[in-house]
């Protein structure tokens, strides 16, 4: 342990802790802009300067390690003047169109300017005057609002290993963007959105607006249907002052009806359907011993990454569509037939925690199984919160209502899809039954829970020791994939039979479309909310969802075959990293 003093207060921290960590222990806030607990500090912005008592020596608190006997001053007139100057310099290169900015009220730069009472900037305004990159229709890059903090680059390179963003130029000519000046659509970007949730301003944001939604809601010829993803229910409340992990499912149903949707369904239903298809596929491959390991396919960011980087392993990627797209297919085929509706007259919206989900709605012809787009648009959790506010709804005061049937019933297995390891846990519950015809004595498969980057587990399925791996955060993928690739090339039995991959840290609870400010503490609380929802369900295995079984009986037939395979499965294409 290290003992030091901060502003006259004694504090003890573990070896390796920074001065920023030490100050937090005694409830002293040191302002930061480039720092985020998800990433190693790199001391870009200089806002967090502190001083050794009795000297003029300034240090950056985010990257300076605490040392025995240090006596640190975090706030005095000299330090505050220096911080104000840094802020003024940043603002002199930043547009002042806050009222029209998507981050207004949620901007870290705006918050700091308010905290320091900045009303004037002493320096001349020099803007970058760069074109806005809207090329990939999901993530919008506006370099004019970039403060060169580097958080997006660190997230893209260090967390995700995607390398779609980097620095170009030097000094005041420094810009952030794809290599060689290409646009985002032609870069390795997989639309995971981790750059958007780590950017402190609106330099990188999602591009979806709500105008088209309102237009469809006002169109008397359209039947408007909506679905909500598992992790939205434990995160949306943060936009309205609730705690991370608070379950708002039934308030969401009510809000969507007040907004004007005719039918409200739950993606948890199609998560159960995904398990039926994916677990059936896994059981078949396990029995036949072919194309193992099987990789999950629920995450569009991961699928995009795999198509670009692991062409030889695409046969191992499950052909099952994601829950979003299975729900879309169910709405515009099964449900449309039951209601006697033309799929082209159904407007189908998805509320998702993910920025890549809107891209997924139109990624290939398989997403048009009904003859129209199975899902017309996908809205992120943050954008959904804006829709609620636009409608003048007092979210916290809403009564609770139920989802519509037959696509609203779900099991506990469906709801845990939103947490890393949840797909694997749900799949194990059902795959065990499909192979052994028995039920797991304990459906809580805890070895795949938690925030370790790569989790391994083993389960006995009918006498076969099934080896599992769960990976979240794309930066953790390559070591496992290279290991599997080497084993397959050498003709060896792979280390794993079944591998779950989620692009974002924590899985969908930490998705690129979730509320800003996610940390591991927040991700853990959101996941805990999903596990609580699971435990409170009467049915906790997908293969016992009564409405789902009825849908198979009435329309889809046997999982993995015939109409189910035609409508609920897809295929993949090897693509170049750079277009």
Overview of the structural elements:
β7 and β8 form a beta hairpin. It contains 18 helices and 17 strands. The termini are far apart. By secondary structure, the chain is of the alpha/beta class. α8 packs across α10 and α8 crosses α14. The chain is globular. It folds into three domains: 74 residues, Ubiquitin-like (UB roll), CATH 3.10.20; 116 residues, Alpha-Beta Plaits, CATH 3.30.70; 350 residues, Fe-only Hydrogenase (Larger Subunit), Chain L, domain 3 (3-Layer(aba) Sandwich). The strands form five sheets. The chain has a five-stranded mixed β-sheet with strand order 2-1-5-3-4, sandwiched between helices. The model has no long low-confidence stretch (mean pLDDT 95).
Number of domains: 3
CATH class of the largest domain: Alpha Beta
Please give the order of strands in the largest beta sheet.
2-1-5-3-4
Number of strands: 17
Provide the CATH superfamily of the largest domain. Answer: Fe-only Hydrogenase (Larger Subunit), Chain L, domain 3
Do you know the CATH topology of the largest domain? Fe-only Hydrogenase (Larger Subunit), Chain L, domain 3
Question: Helices and strands: which structural class?
Answer: alpha/beta
Q: In terms of per-residue confidence, which ranges show pLDDT below 50 for 5 or more consecutive residues?
A: none
Distance between the termini: 52 Å
Looking at the overall shape, the CATH architecture of the largest domain is 3-Layer(aba) Sandwich
Q: Helix amount, in percent? A: 25-40%
Please report which band the strand proportion falls in: under 5%, 5-15%, 15-25%, 25-35%, 35-45% or over 45%.
Answer: 5-15%
Q: Helix segment count?
A: 18
């Amino acid at each position: 342990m290290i003992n030091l003093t901060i502003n006259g207060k004694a504090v003890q921290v573990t070896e390796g802790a920074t001065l920023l960590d030490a100050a937090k222990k005694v409830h002293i806030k040191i302002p930061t802009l480039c720092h985020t607990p998800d990433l190693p500090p790199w001391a870009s912005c200089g806002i967090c300067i502190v001083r050794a008592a009795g000297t003029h020596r300034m240090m950056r608190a985010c990257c300076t390690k605490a040392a025995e006997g240090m006596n640190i001053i975090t706030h005095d007139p000299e330090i505050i003047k220096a911080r104000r100057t840094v802020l003024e310099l940043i603002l002199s290169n930043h547009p002042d169109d806050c009222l029209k900015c998507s981050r207004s009220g949620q901007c870290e730069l705006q918050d700091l300017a308010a905290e320091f009472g900045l009303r004037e900037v002493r320096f001349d305004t020099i803007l970058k005057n760069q074109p806005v990159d809207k090329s990939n229709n999901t993530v919008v890059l506006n370099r004019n609002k970039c403060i060169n903090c580097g958080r997006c680059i660190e997230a893209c390179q260090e967390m995700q290993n995607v390398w779609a963003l980097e620095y170009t130029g030097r000094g005041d000519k420094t810009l952030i963007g794809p290599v060689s000046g290409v646009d985002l659509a032609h870069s390795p970007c997989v639309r995971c959105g981790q750059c958007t949730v780590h950017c402190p301003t609106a330099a990188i944001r999602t591009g979806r607006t709500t105008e088209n939604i309102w237009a469809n809601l006002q169109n008397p010829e359209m039947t408007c249907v909506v679905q909500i993803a598992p992790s939205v229910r434990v995160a949306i409340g943060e936009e309205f002052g609730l705690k991370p992990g608070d379950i708002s499912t039934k308030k969401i149903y009510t809000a969507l009806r007040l907004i004007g949707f005719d039918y409200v369904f739950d993606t948890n239903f199609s998560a159960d359907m995904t398990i039926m298809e994916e677990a059936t596929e896994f059981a078949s491959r396990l029995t036949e011993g072919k194309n193992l390991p099987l990789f999950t396919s629920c995450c569009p960011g991961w699928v995009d990454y795999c198509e670009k980087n692991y062409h030889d392993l695409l046969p191992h990627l499950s052909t099952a569509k994601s829950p979003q797209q299975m729900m879309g297919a169910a709405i515009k085929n099964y449900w449309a037939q039951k209601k006697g509706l033309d799929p082209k007259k159904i407007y189908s919206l998805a509320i998702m925690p993910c920025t890549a989900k809107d891209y997924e709605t139109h990624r290939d012809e398989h997403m048009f199984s009904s003859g129209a787009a199975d899902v017309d648009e996908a809205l992120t959790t943050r954008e959904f919160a804006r829709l609620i506010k636009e409608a003048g709804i007092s979210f916290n005061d809403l009564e609770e209502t139920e989802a519509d049937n037959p696509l609203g019933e779900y099991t506990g297995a469906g709801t845990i899809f939103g947490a890393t390891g949840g797909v694997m846990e749900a799949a194990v519950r059902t795959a065990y039954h499909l192979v052994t015809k028995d039920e797991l004595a304990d459906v809580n498969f805890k070895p795949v829970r938690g925030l370790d980057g790569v989790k391994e587990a083993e389960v006995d399925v009918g006498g076969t020791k099934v080896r599992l791996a769960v990976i979240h955060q794309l930066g953790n993928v390559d070591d496992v994939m290279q290991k599997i690739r080497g084993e397959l090339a050498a003709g060896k039995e792979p280390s794993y039979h079944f591998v779950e991959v989620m692009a974002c840290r924590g899985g969908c609870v930490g998705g690129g479309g979730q509320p800003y400010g996610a940390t591991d503490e927040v991700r853990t609380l959101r996941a805990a909310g999903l596990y609580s929802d699971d435990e409170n369900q009467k049915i906790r295995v997908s293969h016992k969802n009564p409405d789902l079984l009825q849908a198979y009986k009435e329309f889809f037939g046997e999982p993995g075959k015939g109409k189910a395979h035609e409508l609920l499965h897809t295929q993949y294409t090897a693509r170049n990293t750079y277009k």
